[in-house]
Amino acid sequence: xxxxxxxxxxxxxxxxxxxxxxxxxxxxxxxxxxxxxxxxxxxxxxxxxxxxxxxxxxxxxxxxxxxxxxxxxxxxxxxxxxxxxxxxxxxxxxxxxxxxxxxxxxxxxxxxxxxxxxxxxxxxxxxxxxxxxxxxxxxxxxxxxxxxxxxxxxxxxxxxxxxxxxxxxxxxxxxxxxxxxxxxxxxxxxxxxxxxxxxxxxxxxxxxxxxxxxxxxxxxxxxxxxxxxxxxxxxxxxxxxxxxxxxxxxxxxxxxxxxxxxxxxxxxxxxxxxxxxxxxxxxxxxxxxxxxxxxxxxxxxxxxxxxxxxxxxxxxxxxxxxxxxxxxxxxxxxxxxxxxxxxxxxxxxxxxxxxxxxxxxxxxxxxxxxxxxxxxxxxxxxxxxxxxxxxxxxxxxxxxxxxxxxxxxxxxxxxxxxxxxxxxxxxxxxxxxxxxxxxxxxxxxxxxxxxxxxxxxxxxxxxxxxxxxxxxxxxxxxxxxxxxxxxxxxxxxxxxxxxxxxxxxxxxxxxxx
Length: 513
Known about the structure:
By secondary structure, the protein is of the alpha/beta class. The protein is about 35% helix and about 15% strand. It has 18 helices and 19 strands. The strands form 5 sheets. Strands 3-2-1-4-5 form a 5-stranded parallel beta sheet, with helices on both faces. Strands 10-9-13-8-14 form a 5-stranded parallel beta sheet, with helices on both faces. A 5-stranded mixed beta sheet has the order 15-16-19-17-18, covered by helices on one side. A hairpin with a 2-residue loop joins β11 (about 315) and β12.
């Protein structure tokens, strides 16, 4: 059914009537309260949630059956009872009075449909299906709720506060429009989400002028006030977080007009496994410096005008040295550009993110770390292999399989004693790794698995034991994750480890004399 979406205003001054007191009615009442209304609820009984709202004075409750005279003077009427005949009676009475009517789950008895909403103060996202698939609209809302945080409501308030001053300062409509777009495309939203109010004001001053920045609300000049300011934008349905972590100010070294570099973990290969915050930084970036293992599909989310720089290190070739990458990040940030450094997995797990952070810190360039899902955990999980198990593995270790120049840096005796050992970047050295573990006392019957391109459609899994895994995995190439331990036998479609192998592991840990 075709609809014309509108937003109703001034509901706090209009009679809004809800007939029904069950769970469905509760949801409708909460939506009206979020819109500023004080609904009148008529029903012989109501839910505890509605009773609490009545006790707080946020709704007017009349404990009785519906009377057609109740609709007199109503602007909006919602029928949300379990009785179809009663719902149709409400529709007929309200329609005769000229009120807007919505009968729940009866699209033909509706003047309007109530969409699924994401409300952040005056910032509202509406998802509707023309009354045909409300469950789908609700699911989409749940998916988008984490995408649109409380900072959107704060930004709307800031824009409202600035609007008169901006209109006075920039008489040319095209220039005014350009400045508004520059503002919403700036790091302002991310800074508000992190509670970094002084830096957010600095961006407003840079793009709109100091006088306009001074017209902003004064709440939030320190951490406590910031939390109060942002929390005030929460709705009854989605209260603000009580933790302080979301709004803490990061201790960054400042350079004039230098936005922080975002070191973003891209996840293990499936582009949908990037974090919400990481994806937001990609979409806002002026420059994206990406690695070979970062999912290429994520680059589709970059702005059309963003500069994409391939800094990937691949077998037999290297586009940029690590020193060159460090210098590039510093240079682009100092030019005032928003830089996202996109790294496969987690930037601090064999990703050299620590080196890049140290270089930025030494250069006085602000940065932030956005962790990612490491393939050390995700690839085994995608293959159905738990790294820990109550019967077979009480610990696990993650090690690099890359052979470093000079002496071997690994303590193979310690690694051989781990219940589960995960090796990253070890395919080329797999024969040597197996030999080292065998020399350290790991039984040849120990289960092993190699997962190539874990979490992606190209995923392949080869299983075996330390005695034959090299031969079985001969056709696989990087990127691959190696799992050594009895849990490797727990992957999908495999048998559980035998009791004899469990005994071998206990013997290695010294549990038998």
